[in-house]
Write a structure and sequence with these properties.
Layout: E1 10-11, H1 12-18, H2 24-32, E2 36-38, E3 41-42, E4 49-50, E5 56-58, E6 61-62, E7 71-76, H3 94-97, E8 105-107, E9 115-121, H4 124-131, E10 139-145, H5 152-160, E11 163-164, E12 167-168, E13 173-178, E14 181-186, H6 193-200, E15 205-213, E16 216-217, E17 226-228, H7 231-238
């Protein structure tokens, strides 16, 4: 068992998250892969205690310590990837913000064919709280469906839960807005979950937009635009 960090120090994985390197879980993998050194020695224990005087590097690059933590809301257009970088040169959400000197990364994923609200931050602790399944943070989507008229039975099946990957999805809040346009709120994060749920009840998704992440709404943010969250908005996210 790793010792509890002394006063004024913190666990290495948390230090990397606070320095904006990656989320805490991603930081633990970086450490486990042997890509992090402390005072010149490779460390593979994410619970290793470090402090302001520790010399920490990632892939040979020294860290300057904790950055000022920021969170941006972005209205991701269709075709833009929700990743930090893409080896094929496709556009990513980080290019929409361009925050110089700050190492941002997306909070969760929104597939390339979908649009809407995604968060970017350098706050690994907050990112972990917003994406870890145990916190059950709700996310709300608007989906335009194909497959003919959506009847009450299909909506009720979505509400109760749809079998995916051998187990049913958690109950969802679903309502019809008009025609084949529905609004659906889930608190899980399975791969392409909304699309797969709708397809399972015979209604493939034609358009999908995320309009809310926890208490944060997309509002009138234009496609491709971003804004930095106010302190009160960030605190409401932390309170989740």
């Amino acid at each position: 068992m790793s010792p509890t960090p002394a006063a004024g120090s913190m666990r290495l994985a948390k230090y990397l998250a606070h320095a904006g390197v990656a989320s805490r879980r991603a930081a633990e993998k970086l450490i486990g892969d042997g890509r992090v050194t402390v005072d010149g020695m490779t460390v593979t224990d994410p619970a290793r205690a470090v402090d302001a005087h520790s010399r920490v590097t990632v892939d040979g690059r020294p860290l300057r310590g904790a950055e000022a933590r920021v969170v941006y809301a972005v209205n991701k257009p269709v075709g833009v990837l929700s990743t930090a970088r893409d080896t094929h040169g496709r556009p990513t959400v980080l290019e929409l913000v361009g925050a110089r000197g700050v190492r941002l990364y997306p909070v969760g994923r929104l597939d390339a064919d979908s649009s809407g609200l995604i968060l970017l931050t350098n706050d690994g602790e907050l990112a972990n709280r917003l994406t870890h399944p145990s916190f059950e943070v709700p996310k709300t989507y608007r989906a335009r469906l194909g497959g003919g008229a959506v009847d009450a039975a299909a909506l009720e099946t979505l509400r109760r839960g749809v079998p995916l990957d051998g187990s049913p999805t958690a109950p969802a809040h679903v309502r019809r807005l008009r025609g084949n346009l529905i609004e659906l709120t889930i608190h899980e994060g399975r791969n392409r979950q909304v699309r797969r749920m709708c397809e399972a009840v015979g209604h493939p998704v034609l358009e999908l937009q995320r309009i809310a992440f926890g208490p944060l709404r997309l509002g009138d943010l234009r496609p491709g635009a971003h804004r930095r969250l106010r302190a009160g908005e960030v605190e409401r996210l932390r309170a989740l």
